[in-house]
């Protein structure tokens, strides 16, 4: 939101947040051997992670949210009802999504829920989590504290100096924070909704063409830069099964 919507002027009217009971049980303490075994308590414990995402979307970005629950055959009725009841108690629409098994028909309820929310608006309520005029250090700290639940950020003096220099040269650039996707913290083993941690910025990179600054917070592969017309556009499968356009 803070990058793409600033650069393009897009203003989403709603957010579809995808959740699975399996992921909630993971954040509730289950390991792989327990994902397909009913565990309502673990699922409820894992709701802290989902609640943090919902809070971020509603409070920090100002948008209404619909939770699409991707349904699996091993999800039990007790787990499903526990999740939907929790969402209802928070005033968040929760819809079972079964398009993987039923095709488009399995996503009709989700589509109707999204349309209902969008039709109720006269303009997009979306807001950004930080103003463009903030320096880069402040932008990163704002994301870390508001979105990730961190108490602060840290870095070496070299990183601080580089951020200060980039802030002068590219004062309105947004920030892209590259960190583990497995946790709100920078430690992939910390499940749920950890709070009070410190996000360490190990490195910063300038993506001048794309128009943002990347803060590297751990061992992670960043997205490669692509030209306007990447080579993948010419890859195709011919009627006889031959693949053309590869190097």
Automatic annotation (TrEMBL):
Origin organism lineage: Eukaryota, Sar, Alveolata, Dinophyceae, Suessiales
Domain of life of the source: Eukaryota
Keywords annotated in UniProt: ATP-binding, Ligase, Nucleotide-binding, One-carbon metabolism
Protein name listed in UniProt: Formate--tetrahydrofolate ligase
Pfam families linked to this entry: FTHFS
GO molecular function: ATP binding; formate-tetrahydrofolate ligase activity
The keyword Ligase is assigned to this record: yes
TM spans (from-to): none
GO BP terms in the entry: one-carbon metabolic process
Coiled coil feature spans: none
